[in-house]
Structure formats: structure tokens, C-alpha cells
Write a structure and sequence with these properties.
The protein has 610 residues and is mainly α. It is 39% helix and 7% strand. The strands form five sheets. A three-stranded antiparallel beta sheet has the order 5-6-11. A two-stranded antiparallel sheet has the order 1-3. Strands 2-8 form a two-stranded antiparallel sheet. It is globular. The N terminus is likely disordered.
Length: 610
């Protein structure tokens, strides 16, 4: 069994060889450990490819940024990928180089990346094999790869272990030893810059400590205070953790290979025969953009007017017969009205656009050309997949400061710095950014009253009620498009977003409602197939399920997750929205906001009220 698993790992490593990244493995039939660079790159590449695949299959849906047509909640195959495709390479490096002082810095970086992978696992599944996973035998072929005969560690112990190892690894990097670093060509995240890896380790530690405050407060608070007292050791404004893909054949990003590659199943919106299956802006995100006029919308998405330029793509949705008044400038009497037609420049697609038991959505599920799509440049060949940004760390520091856990600035200062950094990252004009920061709900210490979500208008709206919500909402936006997993973690920890339900019945083990499915709290352990924990490690599996409260389902709360009273969506005051519910008074209630330069603008008629 172990020999077979080892061969599988070699095959996975060999399959990761691509033209621009050809140093991963020079011999497809043998793991080359004479140079640690390509073996480490294999783990980085496999991890990023996994996250991109998970985004498009389910995490974009969880985040409510993007609606996909895959319906994909098929997550049972994810389990073995962590051990076989990501961690096995790192274990080989530990065996080969841990006791060699010439590779000290590089092995600290390997440990940091390993901790990052385990942080994803524990926040996705809960208890997982950690302390006994991939135990070393007398030679590499004797490794156990976390699939049988080992225990599942508790969430608490995994967090303690990750936080401890991140601190030790960061402190053990010797920056003066510049020769001991991964090569710039072979390390596409930080280019082998050990100082950046050190700051990444500390920033990841701050992030995870904030996540686990609810169940290990003493340890977490002490660590947050330590890190906030030494901010030079955290990400700065010049830092960004992003995996740079290539442009030559085989080295392109997973997004491009999934959506833009001519032979891809989904050829984005260039293929007029199947535009409906490409990813679309989610209508929940559109409600946020409309509520607070966030200028990042055009950096995130290509609007409906762009889609209209695609052959057979249709035209933007036209708002018809919208009756508009005056703010007093053009009509001091307050009685005159203008009836207008104009284009809706953006259109979001609901996640649950299938037939619902209380009706169907014929308008919204048809005319796919109306819907915005992710900016095509974000899905291109050499898109740099983002793992962590300076803006994210600013928002994390804002929350820490608001909790009274230290920092050299106020929570408001960190919050505003985070918005500035995010706007700069997305190339937003400084004036537009300044205007955005001055809006109610965005400006610190203000409350925002957002637009209601059209499906459940009596109960859901984009309101911002306090400082914590301000921080969390901006983190949610900032995570677009790559950090959907982090958005999922944030939502489970805070339950700050009143998210619309998903449709149930798609690869689900259990759902609290027969008609709707809430966002999963975790990914389940595989219970069938070759990597099944049930068939290969029943005793450990049963202990893990016990730690989860006795059930292996998608709605078992993990330790960091906030308890939440799920809605019974079938009893909500639901309605079948029409486009007019989205777009009437799109540019405001007053004619002064409707210049005739608006696309599709037509003055239908004017009249006076009695």
C-alpha cells in the first residue's frame, strides 16, 4: 500500500511539470532531491492550482461574489489532494535537508508553507491528521501519507502547533545568509526573498490568532499583542504574496485553462453557443456595489455593455419607463416628472436561479448576456494568484486595535489604510477612493443603510451598523477574486453578512431545509472511494467525528465558527423579483443625476402631477 502511494505521489509531481515551471522535476520517473527549489515549487504550484479549482467549483459561490453554472459542491475529492499533491513534497524536503545547516533558511520557508497548507485544512475540515501524518520511516518509500492508521488531531492542538511553528520558523531565518534562499526563478511567490517570507509568517500568525480567539483567548490575545507591538515584522505596503503564472503552453493559470483556453469546457463569453455557463457577477455583490457606489466594481467585472460586444451576446438590459422627479434645481415646484429609458450597466446573477418551489425566475435566468462577468484580465494566462495583501493585514490590525490588543495607530487609521491599499491595488483613482471613504457606512463611525436584497426584501438588506461590520465588509470585498477561501473563513467566524441561501440537493450530506441550502460550515471527510477515512482508518475517523459533535456533515460547526440561527427560508417573505426591482431609480430619484450621456438614455415623456 505504501509503495503504491509513493508511486502516486511521484506521478502527481511529474504531472506538475510545465514549460515555464520545468524545474519542478527534471526526471518524470524519479523525484529529484539534489535541488530543493523545484520540489518546493511543486507544492506551491499544486496548492495554488487547488485553490483556483476550489474557487470556481464552490468557493466563489460561498463568497457570493460570483455565480457559476457548475453547481459544484463536489468537495469529497479534496481530502487526498492536500496530502498527495501539497504536503508530500514538503515531507521529502524535511527528510533530506532538515539537518543540513546550509539549508536552514529554505527549510524554515518550507515549514511556513506547510503551516499555511495545514491552516487551510483545519479551517476546511476541522480535525485532520497532523502530528502523525506522513511519519518518516528508514527511507522515503516508507512514508505514511496520512491516509491510514494515524490519529486525527484536534483543532485546538493544530492551531497551537501551527502558531508555534510559524513563530519559530520566522525567528530562525537568518537574513544575513543571502546564499541560503530559494532561487528567484524557481520561487514565484516572493522570488526567494527571505525577509518577505519572514513577514508572511508573522502576518499569517496574526491572522490565525485572530481567528482562534473565541476558543483559545489567552494564547491568541498574547500572540496578537506581541505581533501588534512589532509591526515592522508584519506585511508592509510593498508586500504582496501572489503566485506568478507563465504564458507559455502548460504554465498558464488554472482560471485560464478552465475558462479561456480554446479547448476548455467553458470558453467564457467568447463562445456564443454557451455564454450562460461562464462565471457571472452575483446579484448579492451587485447590491453592495449599488448600496455604497464602490468604485472597484469596474475593476472587478466587465459590465453588460462589454458583453454586448460579444457576437450574439445580446444587449444590456434596458430600464423602461422610470419616472423621475427633481431635487428642486430643475423643478422648484416639485410636481414635474420625467419618464426615462436607459441601459442598466451592470447586472448580477442570483446563485439560486433554478426553479424554486414557490415559483421561477424566468427573467433572471434567461438572457445571460445581461450579467456582468469577472474582468477577463483576472482569468488570463499569467494572472498572479493572490494569497495575502497588505490591505488584508491593515483590516486585521484594525480589528485587533478595536479589540484593544495593541497597535501604533487607531482602529480607524488601520481601517482607512486598508481601504487605501485595496484601492491602490485595483488601480482606483485617488479622488474616487476618497469619495468612497466619505460615504455613510464606509466612513468610520457612520451607519450605512443599504439596498434590500430583492428576493427577501422584508428581512435582508446591505446595512452597516458598527465598526466591526465596517472592517469585515471591507475585508470581504478586498478578498475578491482569489481569496475566496479566506472570505469563507471570515463569514463563518463573524456571520456578519446576511447571505442569501444556495440551492440544496447538490452533493450535500445534510441540509436543515429541504428547499434551500445555507453556506456549508465545513467540507466533509470522504466516506467512499480510495481515500475514504471510513474504510482505511475507521477508529480515527470515529474519534474525529466525535470531536465535531458526532456528525460528519457540512453544517457541523468548527471551533472558530460563530453559532448562527439559520433562517427557514421557506417561511421567509419571499418574492419573485423583476429587473425593475434592481434598477428603478438606478442613478437616483432626481433628474439632475440623469444626464443624456447615460448609455441608452431616452426621454419618453414629461408630465406634471395634479
Amino acid at each position: 500500500m505504501k509503495k503504491i502511494l509513493y508511486i502516486v505521489i511521484l506521478a502527481c509531481l511529474a504531472s506538475a511539470c510545465v514549460k515555464d515551471l520545468s524545474e519542478i522535476n527534471k526526471n518524470p520517473n524519479q523525484l529529484d532531491l539534489t535541488n530543493p527549489d523545484p520540489v518546493f515549487l511543486a507544492s506551491e504550484l499544486n496548492t495554488v492550482n487547488f485553490l483556483q479549482s476550489a474557487n470556481s467549483s464552490c468557493l466563489w459561490q460561498y463568497s457570493h461574489w460570483i455565480t457559476t453554472a457548475t453547481g459544484g459542491y463536489g468537495i469529497t475529492s479534496y481530502w487526498s489532494q492536500f496530502y498527495l499533491n501539497m504536503l508530500s513534497n514538503l515531507k521529502q524536503l524535511h527528510l533530506k535537508y532538515d539537518n543540513n545547516s546550509l539549508f536552514n533558511n529554505r527549510m524554515q520557508v518550507v515549514t511556513i508553507w506547510e503551516c499555511y497548507i495545514y491552516s487551510i485544512m483545519v479551517q476546511a475540515f476541522g480535525p485532520v491528521p497532523r502530528s502523525q501524518a506522513m511519519l518518516a520511516g528508514t527511507k522515503p518509500g516508507d512514508l505514511q501519507y496520512g491516509l491510514s492508521n494515524i490519529k486525527f488531531d484536534s483543532e485546538d492542538s493544530i492551531y497551537y502547533d501551527i502558531l508555534s511553528k510559524l513563530r519559530t520558523a520566522a525567528n530562525s531565518i537568518k537574513l544575513s545568509n543571502t546564499a541560503d534562499a530559494f532561487g528567484k526563478v524557481n520561487e514565484p511567490i516572493f522570488g526567494g526573498d527571505n525577509a518577505k517570507w519572514q513577514r508572511f509568517a508573522n502576518s499569517l500568525r496574526l491572522k490565525l490568532a485572530l481567528d482562534c480567539r473565541s476558543f483559545m483567548p489567552d494564547t491568541a490575545n498574547a500572540m496578537i499583542k506581541e505581533l501588534m507591538a512589532n509591526e515592522n515584522n508584519l506585511f508592509n505596503s510593498s508586500d504582496k504574496a501572489a503566485f506568478a503564472f507563465g504564458t507559455s503552453s502548460g504554465s498558464e493559470s488554472n482560471y485560464w485553462q478552465s475558462f479561456l483556453k480554446p479547448s476548455a469546457t467553458v470558453f467564457y463569453n467568447k463562445n456564443a453557443s454557451m455564454p450562460s455557463v461562464s462565471p457571472k457577477m452575483n446579484d448579492f455583490m451587485l447590491q453592495y456595489f449599488r448600496s455604497y457606489k464602490d468604485p472597484r466594481m469596474n475593476a472587478f467585472f466587465d459590465s453588460a455593455s462589454y458583453v454586448a460586444n460579444i457576437p450574439n451576446g445580446g444587449a444590456p438590459y434596458t430600464v423602461t419607463n422610470d419616472t423621475i422627479g427633481s431635487d428642486g434645481t430643475m423643478d422648484p415646484t416639485g410636481k414635474h416628472r420625467w419618464v426615462l429609458n436607459y441601459y442598466a450597466p451592470h447586472f448580477g446573477k442570483p446563485i439560486f436561479d433554478r426553479s424554486l418551489y414557490w415559483g421561477s425566475l424566468p427573467v433572471l435566468s434567461a438572457g445571460s448576456a445581461y450579467y456582468d462577468q469577472p474582468k477577463i484580465s483576472l482569468l488570463d494566462k499569467n494572472h498572479a494568484f493572490v494569497i495575502m495583501t497588505y490591505a488584508e493585514i491593515c483590516f486585521i490590525k484594525a480589528e485587533a486595535a478595536l479589540l484593544g490588543l495593541g497597535g501604533s495607530k487607531t482602529a480607524a487609521d488601520y481601517y482607512n489604510a486598508g481601504i487605501d491599499a485595496s484601492m491602490a491595488f485595483w488601480g482606483i483613482d485617488s479622488k474616487d477612493a476618497a469619495d468612497f471613504k466619505n460615504r455613510d457606512g464606509i466612513k468610520w463611525n457612520t451607519i450605512g443603510t443599504g439596498l434590500p436584497y430583492p428576493y427577501f426584501p422584508a428581512t435582508m438588506s446591505w446595512n452597516i451598523n458598527d465598526n466591526f461590520t465596517q472592517i469585515w465588509d471591507q475585508r470581504w470585498v478586498n478578498y475578491y477574486i482569489d481569496q475566496a477561501f479566506d472570505a469563507w473563513v471570515l463569514q463563518r467566524r463573524t456571520k456578519s453578512l446576511d447571505l442569501a441561501p444556495l440551492m440544496s440537493g447538490i452533493d450535500v450530506i445534510w441540509s436543515p431545509n429541504s428547499s434551500f441550502e445555507n453556506i456549508p460550515e465545513r467540507w466533509i471527510y470522504p466516506i467512499t472511494g480510495a481515500s475514504s477515512s471510513v474504510s482505511t482508518n475507521l477508529a480515527a475517523y470515529n474519534e474525529a467525528v466525535k470531536m465535531l459533535g458526532g456528525t460528519n456533515n457540512q453544517f457541523a460547526l468548527l471551533r472558530f465558527s460563530k453559532n448562527y440561527a439559520y433562517r427557514n427560508w421557506g417561511n421567509e417573505n419571499s418574492t419573485l423579483p423583476t429587473p425593475s426591482m434592481y434598477f428603478k431609480k438606478l442613478y437616483g430619484p432626481y433628474i439632475e443625476s440623469y444626464p443624456n450621456t447615460i448609455p441608452g438614455y431616452t426621454l419618453v415623456k414629461e408630465f406634471d402631477l395634479p
